[in-house]
């Protein structure tokens, strides 16, 4: 496994399409700033080939329900981003020897993903499960619903599904690196590399998904009948 570069690399993010709908809807998708921590992440997919849905009609009508539905995807992703940041910070502190087991227990007890007993492995495994569950829900429920509502979304949804499979493999790499770390706790390089690749791919994917799906979700909801039920 390649060790982590000391300096962060920046990769030019794909230009976002015109998003006049964002201002009218009142929901801002999280942008991808192009930061990449590991060269390997660029080998997993080509961001320049990501499909983009047609620009929505300027006359689309949004209300408070639309805004809440679009914002919900951003909020869920924000939780994943925040927990990923805490996971990275935990690894940094344990590696530096600045965090004791007792302090780590206290820190993790304040996180969304709580553990009864402090364990770096348990926390990483729990986070990986949450990401997998999120993607599974999208693949089996949200995506089929959006496909049925708007045929033009199919290329985007196909690509997002493919990226879910890639991220699943990246999560498996994190699990493998955890096993290596348990067997050799003095070597953080494989675990750091695996988490860096997870960071690169997940943050890039979440930004792309928000860019493409916040507006359709605002119009169609996450499942059949949701918008109608919320507006009653």
From TrEMBL:
<feature type="region of interest" description="Disordered">
    <location>
        <begin position="1"/>
        <end position="59"/>
    </location>
</feature>
<protein>
    <submittedName>
        <fullName>5,10-methylene tetrahydromethanopterin reductase</fullName>
    </submittedName>
</protein>
<feature type="compositionally biased region" description="Basic and acidic residues">
    <location>
        <begin position="40"/>
        <end position="50"/>
    </location>
</feature>
<feature type="domain" description="Hemerythrin-like">
    <location>
        <begin position="72"/>
        <end position="214"/>
    </location>
</feature>
<dbReference type="InterPro" id="IPR012312">
    <property type="entry name" value="Hemerythrin-like"/>
</dbReference>
<dbReference type="Pfam" id="PF01814">
    <property type="entry name" value="Hemerythrin"/>
</dbReference>
<dbReference type="InterPro" id="IPR053206">
    <property type="entry name" value="Dimeric_xanthone_biosynth"/>
</dbReference>
């Amino acid at each position: 496994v390649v060790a982590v570069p000391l300096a962060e690399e920046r990769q030019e993010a794909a230009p976002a399409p015109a998003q006049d709908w964002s201002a009218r809807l009142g929901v801002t998708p999280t942008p991808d700033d192009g930061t990449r921590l590991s060269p390997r992440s660029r080998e997993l997919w080509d961001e320049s080939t990501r499909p983009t849905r047609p620009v929505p009609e300027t006359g689309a009508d949004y209300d408070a329900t639309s805004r809440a539905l679009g914002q919900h995807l951003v909020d869920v992703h924000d939780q994943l981003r925040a927990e990923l940041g805490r996971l990275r910070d935990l690894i940094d502190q344990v590696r530096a020897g600045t965090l004791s087991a007792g302090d780590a227990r206290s820190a993790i007890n304040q996180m969304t993903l709580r553990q009864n007993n402090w364990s770096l492995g348990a926390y990483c495994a729990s986070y990986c499960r949450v990401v997998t569950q999120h993607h599974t829900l999208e693949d089996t429920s949200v995506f089929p619903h959006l496909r049925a509502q708007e045929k033009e979304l199919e290329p985007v949804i196909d690509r997002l599904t493919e990226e879910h499979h890639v991220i699943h493999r990246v999560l498996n790499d994190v699990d493998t690196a955890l096993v290596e770390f348990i067997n050799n706790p003095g070597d953080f390089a494989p675990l750091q590399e695996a988490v860096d690749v997870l960071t690169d791919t997940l943050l890039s994917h979440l930004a792309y998904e928000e860019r493409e799906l916040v507006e359709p979700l605002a119009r169609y909801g996450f499942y059949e009948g949701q918008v109608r039920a919320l507006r009653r």
